[in-house]
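User: Please check token order:
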Amino acid sequence: MDQRRTLLVLRHAQTEETRPGSRDSERRLTPDGERHALEVGDYLRSQGITIDAVLCSSAARARQTLDLLKLGDQLAPDRVEIADRFYNAGADTLINAVRELPDDCRVALLIGHAPGVPSLVHEMTDPAISPPEAVRAIESRFPAAALAQLEFDGDWSGLDSGSLVSVRMPGSASR
């Protein structure tokens, strides 16, 4: 049974520079990054979006972004996957992970990094059916804490650029 699916794709919020002697995966959010993550969470809550599954990079900045969204009751806690496979993953790896989502999942949130996250959104966007301002934001830049909302009809396993219905870039993309 085909139904509308929504994939929320979020690039982690702004991070500090890598400190000498530390690993990239340990980088934390800046105060501005924390504020932007909270704003994305405010947006998701204001839309009343219930998230059925989360795919999140294991990097500290991605986990911190997820925590600051403060989704509470809007999130199914038993379907949160925080994994190394999403850390700096390419678009193909991310798309394949989304294709593995269960059929009863209607809304999924993916939190990752550039260049994989912007590349995934760019690959999935059809300029002919998406709002021009979203297409411009995707093509020009995909800043930290940018959120893309991709909608399509069908099962996750069939996700490809041809199945995409629309993409929206809420206010977070204006940074």
Q: What stands out?
A: The chain has a mean pLDDT of 87. The chain has five helices and six strands. The helical segments are 31-46, 60-69, 91-99, 116-124, 132-140. Strands lie at 4-11, 53-57, 80-83, 107-112, 147-153, 164-168.
